[in-house]
Amino acid sequence: MTAEEIYKSLSAKFGEAIVESKLDAPQPFLVLDPKRMKEVSLFLRDDEALQFDFCSCVSGVDYNNGKLGAIYHLASMVHKHKIVLKAFCTRENPHIQSVATVWGGADWHEREAYDLLGIIFDEHPDLRRILLPYDWEGYPLRKDYKVPEFYNGMKVPY
Amino acid sequence: MTETRTLPTRYVTHPGELKTSSGRSLRTDEMIINMGPQHPSTHGVLRLEVVLDGEIVVDVIPHIGYLHRCFEKHAEHMTNYQQVIPYCDRMDYLSSMNNDWAYALAVERMMKIEVPPRVETIRVIMAELQRIASHLIAVGTYGIDMGAFTPFLWAFRDRERILDLFEMTCGARLLYNYIWIGGLSHDLPPGFVDKAKAFCTYFKPNIKELNDLLSYNEIFVKRTANVGVLPADVGINYGVSGPTLRGSGVNWDLRRDDPYGIYDKFEWEVQVGKGERGTLGDCWDRYIVRVREMEESVRIIEQALAVLPEGNVQAAIPKRIRPDSAEIYVRTETARGELGFYVVSDGTASPYRLKARAPAFVNLSVLPEISRGCMLADLVAIVGSVDIVLGEVDR
Q1: CB-CB neighbors (< 8 A) of B342 in chain A
Q2: A-chain residues near B68 (CB < 8 A)
Q3: B131 with B59, same domain?
Q4: Does residue B46 sit in the same domain as residue B193?
Q5: Whether pLDDT at B9 is above 60
């Protein structure tokens, strides 16, 4: 399926949950409502014509204008088509609905995005820090991150 | 100055209620054992929090991050795109060539750079040599996990020959910085082609030797067949890729299914597990896929060496690499599976955001799913068969 057809079948079913679309980009993407990620994802995974069974990658991005984003790269092993989903939230209220129960592969990626960018994935089964120590403060990949002077009372040497 | 804080308690230990770090309550006859981070069978610094009921594994919670070197943060602070490549080397340090290629490919596709045919061919040769070297370690150390020491030494003996080839090409044996954006750092040295051909001739009988010694060894088969079965649908849902997924019978290889480089010009086959010695998708299937992939890699190398064209090894690229404001996700097949780079550019000379989708990171996340209900000793077999490299898991 082309990105256009994927967009049509999604917007027919979900309407306003598809906030924006850019289908002429080299890698076409759809922007989704962060509160309705799961239902759209379930449809993407289970619909016969779509069958996006493989969640390649979830990347968190800080756009440095108060906006954070989670970018989902999906692929279908059956139909060999691809699509990119995006969901945006603000730094003040960084909530996006988790799809970890839809694709098991999204689980650790979402934990990583939480760990490094502080995006809180609602309804995630086990949202803990994954790469950094569990008592780390702050989210290093945010653009306004300052390297802390102390870690647990120990001076960081530079 | 901040005050010294007391460390939070890891386990909540109210009488009668012990919890794992994922919040699971323990029954009275269960206990928690930590395997790693200094355990040899975890192939690096990985800690597995294992919930045991006697010898039976009830749950596994992997704890990673001991080797986190802030790859993505570093990449954002480089002064140009080229400087990221040495860091890519250090992600999956057993298949550095493949990592470099994936990153270079992402930037090249972003800037629409066409690389000369000689570069494409050399890249394929290097990537496949690297794949053999990496699989040799996977197979050799897996032998050690199962108590067979000799195959490990034999694998390292053969890998040494590949490292010699890399050393004569770029001077480094492990971290090459060889594949650059738009080309390569050097051309091949004189005599490389002959030596590489000699290696292929030398190596082919050794695979048979390895099969006789380890693959079809009764003790080895008993330890690995029917253990840690990964059903194909679970693997796909978890985003597992590479030999780990192909071991479950899924015919999926990005070299063929999402083509890059010039793999389509060569004749080779995607190897999948068939459940020959036990259930489809067990540890033995994942192991044998790697052995057979080495044979396929030799085939590709031989064909590539035969058609190696003359020419330039650096495409005409701008001196300062500044992609327009854009984003791209490029995935390639490394020895462990789908290595993807998501690059966001804002028009400056360094990536605005670079995310590495490491195959071992994702493959490891399926571990709890396939090890529940197995024996503790089999957990070693399962971890080994997934073939993780912690440098890549933690980045």
Answers
A1: 57, 59, 71, 73
A2: 131-132
A3: no
A4: no
A5: no
